[in-house]
Amino acid sequence: xxxxxxxxxxxxxRKSNAGVPKGLTIASNNAxxxxxxxxxxxxxxxxxxxxxxxxxxxALFEAQMMSGELEVELTPQGxxxxxxxxxxxxxxAFYTATGxxxxxxxxxxxxxxxxxxxxxxxxxxxxxxxxKAWKADRYGNLLFRxxxxxxxxxxxxxxxxxxxxxxxxxxxxxLDPDEIHLPGIYVNRLIQGTFEKAIEQRTVRSA
Length: 207
Description:
Layout: E1 4-8, E2 24-27, H1 38-43, E3 47-52, H2 59-67, E4 71-74, H3 77-89, E5 93-96, E6 110-113, E7 116-122, E8 126-137, E9 142-143, H4 152-158, E10 159-170, E11 189-192
Helix pairs in contact: 3-4
């Protein structure tokens, strides 16, 4: 049985992926960069299908997609986030106008609301979700930094088992309840790690 993930945000390059099965279905915004994160699973040819909003800077992802070796379901970014949110909220499907009249909408149910066409999109529910947050307490209550809130919270809720890697773990009561972005009820495993930011495209100003 394939391991379906709500998101594989980061896979540490310090660890071997030998124990990870092949035939994985991964839902993630993109595949990151070569040699890191999902790139390691692509190198080992452990991913059968990617559900993503764009190819990004991962050359191996592009090559496997173009050769037909990797099945890719390109999904509009907002739709992908909503599919994860719906999965976590117990909503099996929803209608969206995004993608109607394009290849994204081919073969999907179409309804008309207020004179506008909408397609039916099914929610994503994964066996596991692996994501990153900035800070957590020991109950798993999470804080994210800036754009990390775009996908990570929804992905975590969409996994039946959620594994979250954080930069800092504090004691219970040290986080202001009003600052918590996602309650620990959604988190099954908490890991404190060290991080190196992999930059996809570095642009600098000339001297």
